[in-house]
Amino acid sequence: MTETHGEYTALLLDEGHSGDAAVLDRLRRDPAVVFVDRLDQQIESLRSLVPTPGPGALDEAPVWAYYSWRRTVVRLLGPASFRLLRLDRNRNKITAQEQERLRNVTVGIVGLSVGHAVALALTLEGACGGLRLADFDTLELSNLNRVPGTVLDLGVNKAVVAARRIAEIDPYVTVTLWEDGLDVESVAEFLDGTDVVIDECDSLDVKVSLRREAKRRGLPVLMATSDRGLLDVERFDLEPDRPVFHGVIGDVDVESLTGLGSRDKIPLVLRILDAGELSATMAASLVEVDETISTWPQLGGEVLLGGAQVAAAVRRIGLGQPLAPGRCRMDLDQHLDALTDPPRPHDLPEEPADRAVPAPVSHDAVDAVVHAAARAPSGGNVQPWTIAADDAGLTISVAPEHTTAMDVGYRGSCVAVGAALHNARIAASAAGLLGAVTVHDGDEGLPVATMTFGSGNARELTDRYEHMLDRTTNRRPGVPRPLDDTQAGLLAEAASREGARLCLVTDRDDIATIGAILAESDRIRFLTPTLHREMIGELRWPPLDSVETGIDVRALELDSAELSTLALLRRPDVMERLGELDAGRALGKSTADRVASSSAVAVVAIPGSTPRDYVRGGEATESVWIHAQALGLAVQPISPVFLYGVESAELEQLSPRYAAPLERLREELFDVVGAKAGEALAMVLRLSHAPGPSVRSERLADRLRRRIS
């Protein structure tokens, strides 16, 4: 083991320490020594991190690092702040907690050709806190095809070259060298204090001895072989009885392996590497060893790939993640031979925002009423109803087969039925068919709305007919111009006429609070597997998908960057990873931004939580929506996860992990909108001043039944 650390580690000096200050003073007087001080830039970068580091990092004393082989002194952040800043870009492929755990891992690397690439990858990623490096050889010019050194390192011990590289990246990594390399006798000493062993040496006797000692100690051994991306993993920590080299070489005599030349090693190497799996170029090269080439070839790119493979395996071991023993090949040529075109982005057809509202399917008055009812909004545009009509009247009932997890107790479906009933009343009034309306319990206690056709009309309904047909969801960001008292009064009256109460929030701070609540609800929806699956299942990508149900992605009003990000948000594995980290604060950012651009948030409150109350809430929601749009406002419904979860047990069923946060969010929303005891919330509407929407949602015809009497 080498003790001359100054040849390959930085001397760390604290200017506040008298002894260190004297050394720095002496170095400053030496004209051959260069001082580099870019501490201000490091501190500025440290302060810009998200989240902002605490006082412990910001107030940590800096150090001077003296690199004797470069005759250079560099001013650096202290160890904690240095590590925080240097490894910040690892997050969250490696979390801060995982990074701290890896800091306690010590890795021993034997052989510093491929091993240099391994040490480099481990250092870059902060995948260990200590390294033990062993190699007796010095760097030669022929090594520079694969060893990431320079011509300035020629003649320097390979372990020293690697250690210097590490120190210049991170002077706080603990590095210990065995510049005489390892032999059978020194293997045990090398493994003292080592957690993971990396074998990249050429000596077969050392390879076998290393594994036997690692097996005795219960240490994992990794080896990357620079041909077709071969990675060997021997988990002696998990399988203490596992034979070395997976048993492919049998029980060999170590002494017989000492001092073998390149050609003499080939038979055993072929057994280790599996001759049948070698690349053709490697197999042909082995035939030429000592004839036209001096030893077996290695390419720099394949060596660097090996470094990346081993670093990934060390991370898994260090973090206790699954890593089975065995071997695998990551053959770059094989993958390059299998290149295919990537899936192309969905080509969304353009559609003018101001296109005319389609007329009813026919001029028949009853058909006009049926299709007006079908134009009602529903969560995710699932249209959870069955609408049937004949010349005598019309019924609208809940279709339970079209429910979703967020439609707790079919309450959202009841709201949709109420909205459809309100549309039917408007159309019937405009056609002179308005008659008695009742809501009664049907099968399974679900409400059924019935309207008997008569000869009546009501001016306040008839006047809303064109506005009802024009009603649509508008998710565009808006301009937060305030509503005047007249507008607010008309919207409140629109809700009260249908037996509900409108909670209209116009205070900017309260709107921001609502935005934060709804954003956190969206985050939970993304991170809850069932809710995420259903949410993504609502999206429709024309022209590939029919848009008669679900949400046309064009209606989301996303810019190109947001639309690209949506491809990531659709992936369950990405959401699972964010959930493990309890992260994903950005998942609700779009909602928070849109709410912040609103002129007001309108919440429809109903006097109870029976199915009929929610039907009443649907009628009031549609009434408010139609009036708001008639006043020139853009309207977007936002359904927080907890909207229809009235009981704590229902929230537990919705999202077991986030039930408590959902209950807290529900309480916060009730408080900020001023909901009263005993009330329930039927809908949350975002009101804004914005341009027209890109597209309108379509409807299915097969849930409408016209009976001829």
UniProtKB/TrEMBL annotation:
One Pfam family recorded for the sequence: ThiF
Source organism superkingdom: Bacteria
Protein name: Rv1355c family protein
UniProt-listed PANTHER family: THIF PROTEIN, TRNA THREONYLCARBAMOYLADENOSINE DEHYDRATASE
Organism: Rhodococcus jostii
CDD domains reported for this sequence: E1_enzyme_family
Ranges where the THIF-type NAD/FAD binding fold domain occurs: 88-227
InterPro entries in UniProt: Nitroreductase-like, ThiF/MoeB/HesA, ThiF_NAD_FAD-bd, Ubiquitin-activating_enz
